[in-house]
Each structure stands twice: as C-alpha cells, then as structure tokens.
Amino acid sequence: KRYVDDYNLSNYDASVLTADKSVSDYFDTVIKSDNSLKESSKIVVNWITSELFSLLNENNMEISNSPIQPKNLGKLVKLINDNIISGKIAKDVLLEMFNTKEGPENIIEKKGLKQLTSSSEIENIVDEVLKENVKMVEQYLSGKDKLFGFFVGQSMKKSKGKANPKILNDILKKKLSKKN
C-alpha cells in the first residue's frame, strides 16, 4: 500500500518489491539515498527487477549479497535522469559496478562514458555522417523516410554511443529538412 500510495507504483511493481523483504529493503535504501529519486521510483524498480535481478541470477546471488550498493544504484539512476549517461551506457556501467564494486561516477570517468550533450559536437558528427553518405541523403530526400534510422545509427556509431539521442534526433531532423 505504501509503495502504491507514496511512490505511484503499480500493484504489480509493489508486489514484486514486497515478495522478498531484502528486495523491499534494497529499494527503500535506493530511494532514500537521494530525494530526487522518489519521482523516479518506477525507473528504480525497473533497474532492480530487470537489470540487477538478471546479474544476480546469472551469478546465483541474492540481493542481500549484491556487490552493487543501493546508494550506487541510486547514483546510476540519477546519472541517467540528469542526462550524464544514456540508458544503454548505464547497462555497461551497471555490469562494471557489479564486477568491481565501484561507484558509477568512477567508472564513467575512467572509461570516458559521459554522454555528449553539446549541440555543436553532435552537429559536427551529424555533418560528417551526412557528408559521408550523400547518396543515402538523396534517397532520404526523395521519400525513403526509413533511412532516418540509418543516419541515427551512423551518428551514434561515430559518437561511440555517447550522443544524447534526443539532441541527435533533433539536429538530424533539422539538417535533413534544410536539404529539402
């Protein structure tokens, strides 16, 4: 009842959390580690029940023995919310956290995984991709809308997955509509 009332979680999520006291304790500790996480309770549940459970199951471990401290999982969710890293990068960071017991900031710093949010940097990447794929741009402009995904993919590849997807999509749409 508390999870549904206080955190707007579904009955299903609340039942998954309360099925095992150690899971609900872990969740509570994550949420209490940072006040801003209360609004992200659904995201926290998803990270615990999908990504963390998956790692724990693969390694035949209980959540009470998790190498990932609740406060570090909270930090990881906050880094996603603050657009410092993408959800895709966060999965790699989580695995590294699991293997090394390090906090997410250290891993992101060490591996240079910060998300690119600078519009000018992303714009340069998009310009390169469009320049390298002139024929594809012509096909896109002649009506092959599905090629948009190709440009997104190439740009993400060039940024090593670090470009903020929303900024990247906005810039691509703008650039391709100007060419029309």
Summarize the structure.
This protein is mostly helical and 180 residues long. 71% of the residues lie in helices and 0% in strands.
Characterization of this structure:
The structure is a single chain. The chain is mostly helical and 180 residues long. Helices cover 71% and strands 0% of the residues. It contains eleven helices and no strands. Helix 3 (21-32) packs across helix 5 and helix 8 crosses helix 11 (165-179). It is elongated.
How many DSSP H or I helices? Answer: 11
Helix content: over 70%
Determine the mean pLDDT: 92
Report how far the terminal alpha carbons are from each other: 55 Å
Class derived from helix and strand content: mainly alpha
Blueprint of the fold:
Blueprint: H1 2-7, H2 11-18, H3 21-32, H4 41-58, H5 70-81, H6 87-100, H7 104-111, H8 119-132, H9 134-141, H10 147-158, H11 165-179
Helix pairs in contact: 3-4, 3-5, 5-6, 8-10, 8-11, 10-11
Any key phrases for this structure?
180 residues, mainly alpha, elongated
